[in-house]
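Methods — Computational structure assignment.
A single polypeptide chain was analysed. Its primary sequence is given first, followed by the predicted tertiary structure written as structure tokens.
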Amino acid sequence: MFAFIYLTFSTGFNQFIEQEEQKHVDAVKQQLIELYSQSNSWQPIEQNTLLWRSIVEQNVEPGVEKDPSLNGGGESAKDRQAKGKQDSPSPAFLWINLPPGSLKTGQRISLYDVNKQVIVGRAHLSDSPQVESILLNNNVIGWIGFAPSRLVESSPAKAFLTAQFYSYFMITLCVMLVAFIVAIVLSRHLMKPIRQIVAGTNALKKGDFSNRIPPLTQDELGTLSMNVNELAQTLEENQQMRAQWVSDTSHELKTPLTVLRSHLLAVQDGVFVPDEKRIALLIKQVDNLNHIVDDLTQLAHSDTAVFTYNLEHVDIINVFKSSLDDFSMRFEQQGLVVHSQSLQKAGQCIIKGDKDRLQQLFLNLLENACKYTNKGGQLNIEVNKTASDIELTLQDSAPSVSPEDQEKLFERFYRVEKSRNRALGGSGLGLALCKQIVDAHKGDIYLQDSPLGGLAVQMRFPVLEK
């Protein structure tokens, strides 16, 4: 910028000076022509040095007046020069208001006669860098030699350019220093959140998921810091869930294994007799283990997208009826009264789903209702159909579940120990499987209080357009 500005300025300033000096030379030529036309010779100038100075210099020294006859009784050459400046303003540097004679142009003008002999100024015409002829009625009456300001070492214009060069150079150094200081401050300001983000990601890489990055800015770096914090929180929660998963899995498997080991050791020591009742107990514990392993396998398959679904057009009402028929004997043994009139009147309802998975869903829910409802209780089944979806609701009687526990029942291995305890044989994976199946069918499943005093399970599935 310094080089560009200075080159632009010096070029424009030199053009401006040349224009001003050319105006000065033209004005001098005009006055010399008027003077020569009166005396038909250059003798007045040869005999009067002050006259020459009054012509070539714009400011007349005190006490020296110009001959009015030089101007033909009209306006002076100086007035015409000033008028010419007003009529033809310089295209650039109009803000510069040069005082008359400040360029000392008159000191660099020489006058020669028609034979190129010096009258005033340099001894030889060839010594002048710029030569112009003086014409009167298209006849050469003399010559003017002129040395432009840019070619003179001690000229005011060149001195002015030199002073401007040093001024611009100092300004450039100051600007560079300020820019350097601002760059350091700004880089530190920008690097501080970046260093924090790098430190935070390094902590995540080392497994420290509790580390958080304090957002220092409201820009993109602040957004990135918040995203890294959310990632750290997610990883921390996943780590805790993984640890809880391993702990719950080992605990669930340990219970039937402990029972199996204690009974087998008792049989080995002769404490228990391996009769039919004892063997049936051991088989029941093996079945519990097998049930837990099957649930874990299905959930693992669902998490890794291996849990396949054969989607087709399925009448969900018929699937529910079939599952309900399979549990009719269990309900009688438990003494539960099932109200399914709404299901019987629902008619056909086609959705896109997997019949086997839907049946698994309904069997799990009916198993929970049968297992966790007090004897002599009730089970109410409600069906609500709209043009876009179907809603199935299972409402059982006491015991109920608190709202806090309802939010956690879809978590794996979670059970309400007081009313739905491990003694009933549950693994705590049934509702987690149910949610996986409902989500795979693009449906929703909710838990809420039942009007019968127990728990209500509400499912909604999108239906196919007729």
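Note: Residues 156-205 form the longest helix (50 residues).
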